[in-house]
Amino acid sequence: MIDGLNDHEEEAKLAYRSLFVVSLANVKTPEHDRFSQDVKSLAARQYNYTYSENENINPFAMSEYYAMKILGVVLNETVTIDGVAAASDGAGLSKRMWNRTYNILGRQIVLDENGDRVADWVVNQLDPGGNAFRPVLQWNTGMKMFMPVIEEDGSSRQISWYNRSSAPPDRPFRVSSTDTGYQIPTDAIAIGCSAMAIILIVALILVVVYRKTIWNKLRPSGSEIASVPFANEE
Fold it and tell me: What is the pTM of this model?
């Protein structure tokens, strides 16, 4: 059941049928499960926060933990190899983290040559019953391709396309089309050009008015201009 729906539950379920949520792949390992339980117990004991039964640890909190573990590994290596003084070299520590794979909580945390994390992703969709989001596709970063999610019976989990039987065409949406392909309607082009012309005219008017206003403020009045006598007036 989705929290907070109340009397609008069915309307919300219908709206969420067209929504896809992209998130990090949640690889289950015994080490990660034990860590998650420790975090939930700590949250309830010290911060008075109780996780729901199937609620996962916030991915930002997990990323913070991974970052601290990686920093600990690299800091230990740096002190051992280069001495304590090298621990204050932030740039050196950062570069030592790059282009490596770390095994944390039974998961492989991969950083590329630029220091960016290389991770697998999943595409989630509301299940047919409208009770919770579930993975329907997996992005394998190593193979650089989408992989199907396998059901318990060995079949591939299918995406439920709202109001259609198959995926939409892989091309930009246009209002009208011709034999040679999709084109932007002529009316839309005319409206867009007219709008741009109006914006340009208004901008020019504002610039002229602004310059005139500034000039009037800076120009000295007649009483402030000293008269200069000519030679034949002396």
Answer: 0.56
